[in-house]
Structure of HicA protein:
Amino acid sequence: MNSRHRKTLEAIFSLPVPGNIEWRRIEALFLALGAEMIEGDGSRVSFIIHDEKADFHRPHPGKEAKRYQVRHAMEFLSRAGVQP
């Protein structure tokens, strides 16, 4: 995990929940943590880390993750035992 991934992880766990994190940075963080990525139909994508699975829809047409997606990412990472 590089410094950019660490900054993304800290942003995900910050309060209030930010609404300006680019979705590709969240995906890059998951992959850096060793997540398995499963592409679904359309914008659907699933990630598995440490036997924890989470389903997401990539934001469109914008590239920033919505606040509820960031909150869901934080919950997913917490369940997987990942903390900043």
In short: Strands lie at 36-39, 44-49, 52-57. The longest strand covers residues 44-49. The longest helix spans residues 67-79. Residues 3-79 form a domain with the Metal Transport, Frataxin; Chain A fold (CATH 3.30.920).
